[in-house]
Design goal:
The chain has about 90 residues and is mainly α. About 75% of the residues lie in helices and about 0% in strands. This is Multidrug ABC transporter ATPase.
């Protein structure tokens, strides 16, 4: 049996990846909920009450936040790889 290699703890990357996936997933679900609600006849006045304002506005804020999380994840991953390359070359 081959050795799987060292197990590294990349908790920050994991948390950022799960946050990114959750925000994008929730935004897409809310986007489709608004589409389905609109097609099923929910009027503009009905969308202004209850949970509809949150469902309507979540993609407006969620997707830019997800973009920032993705950029942060790429930066954290790049820094980790640079550090591991520097540590391996010494």
């Amino acid at each position: 049996m081959s050795d799987p290699g060292p197990i590294t703890d990349n908790r920050a990357e994991r948390v950022l990846a799960y946050m990114f996936a959750a925000v994008v997933g929730l935004s897409i679900i809310c986007f489709f909920a608004v589409m389905i609600g609109t097609f099923s006849g929910v009027t503009r006045e009905e969308m202004g009450s209850g949970v509809w304002p949150i469902v309507t506005m979540l993609p407006w804020f969620g997707l830019p936040i997800a973009f920032l999380l993705l950029i942060t994840l790429l930066i954290v991953n790049g820094v980790r790889r640079a550090r591991s390359t520097r540590a391996g070359s010494s």
